[in-house]
Amino acid sequence: MSRLPHLPYAEWDLESLADASPGMKPPQLTVLELFAHHPALARAFLAYNRYLNGRRSTLPPRVRELAILRVAWRRRCRYEWAQHVRMAAKAGVTPEEIALIRAGGGVGGADALARLVIGAVDELDANSRLSDQTYQALAAEFGEQQLMDLVFTIGTYVLLAMAFNAFGLELDPGLDDEGFDTTDATPHLAPDPQGTPRKGT
């Protein structure tokens, strides 16, 4: 159940939500109702988030969606998962890679790039840093701006997962959370750079 009172669409400051759907009237989504409670925050954040999810980002959409879904799974954020699992399929993320995201380990059929991106999410989420080995592997695949976009995307969706969970965001009607269950609710945390395993939070 949402922890914020329902805000009727007629009371939304649509101008503050314009960056969510440029050129169109903002849709009646639960996530936009959340931001409608705070128009000043909505203006600032949605403009930034539009960059991360738009064509100006240097990240390939498939890489972005791999990262976002791994964040959603680790952070147990049902809304974030449901919103992005369909987007991931359209971006070319395969069922084998979805299985890898959920398992947090090597799964046959998932390619090396997917494992690298998912591992980077795990390290950043667990330790707020990347090991030298992971950074070097990422740098071999991505340019400097792509690396920055990847790290900022991961951090932003950790923040969103935190907000969605904190405020009890409910799924929109018809939004499918397929593959999101509680059979493996413990995050697969990466070891810290000193090699000491982290305890789950």
Could you list the spans in which at least 5 consecutive residues all have pLDDT below 50? 185-201
Order of helices and strands: HHHHHHHH
Specify the CATH class of the largest domain: Mainly Alpha
The CATH superfamily of the largest domain is AhpD-like
What does this structure look like?
The model is unreliable at 185-201 (pLDDT under 50). The protein is built from 8 helices and no strands. Helix content is 53%, strand content 0%. It is globular. It has 2 domains: 9-53, no CATH class; 61-166, AhpD-like. It is an all-alpha fold and 201 residues long.
Short structural description:
With 201 residues, the protein is an all-alpha fold.
State the main characteristics.
AhpD-like; 8 helices; 2 domains; mainly alpha; 201 residues; globular; 53% helix
SSE layout and pairing:
Elements: H1 30-36, H2 39-53, H3 61-74, H4 78-90, H5 95-103, H6 112-127, H7 132-141, H8 144-166
